[in-house]
């Protein structure tokens, strides 16, 4: 099912964007390259950056979300409501982006896990019920 997002969220300013590998929730647990945006109190994703003008393939409200670093390149997002699902995200995307022919406007660099966690932490200021844990990060 498609996420239901308000127009306020869809037209809000993008705080942070870039590629991440998202571990599939299916039994096989494959990594899927997705384009993510943090905006309007939500984390949204699409199959590719060319699709961001369309409705996102997935979205999570950051309210009551727990973020935790898992080493240098991974972090998890845990939903405190609904499915109570844990999303595992990987920021070491260089080779996957090369294969998909995605180019960074930052040269050869893509955002790192700590940059993603910081963006989620900054967004949590607008939504203070979110918690951030790990690697000296706190709300």
Characterization of the model:
The chain contains three helices and eight strands, in the order αβββββββααβ. Strand 1 (14-23) and strand 2 (31-39) form a beta hairpin. It starts with 6 loop residues before the first helix and ends in a 6-residue tail after the last strand. The protein has 139 residues and is α+β, with helices and mostly antiparallel strands. Strands 4-3-2-1-7-6-5-8 form an eight-stranded mixed β-sheet, with helices on one face. Helix content is 18%, strand content 35%. It has helices at residues 7-10, 94-100, 113-126; strands at 14-23, 31-39, 42-46, 58-61, 65-70, 74-79, 86-90, 131-133.
Provide a concise account of the structure shown.
The protein is an alpha+beta fold and 139 residues long. The protein has helices at 7-10, 94-100, 113-126; strands at residues 14-23, 31-39, 42-46, 58-61, 65-70, 74-79, 86-90, 131-133. It contains 3 helices and 8 strands, in the order αβββββββααβ.
The rough form would be described as globular
- Tell me the strand order in the biggest sheet: 4-3-2-1-7-6-5-8
User: Over the alpha carbons, how many angstroms does the gyration radius reach?
Assistant: 14 Å
The total of beta strands comes to: 8
* End-to-end Cα distance: 32 Å
Give the biggest beta sheet: 8 strands, mixed
State the secondary-structure class.
alpha+beta
Low-confidence stretches: 134-139
Q: What are the secondary-structure elements, in order, as H or E?
A: HEEEEEEEHHE
**What is the helix tally?**
3
Helix content: 10-25%
Please report which band the strand proportion falls in: under 5%, 5-15%, 15-25%, 25-35%, 35-45% or over 45%.
25-35%
Overall pLDDT metric:
80
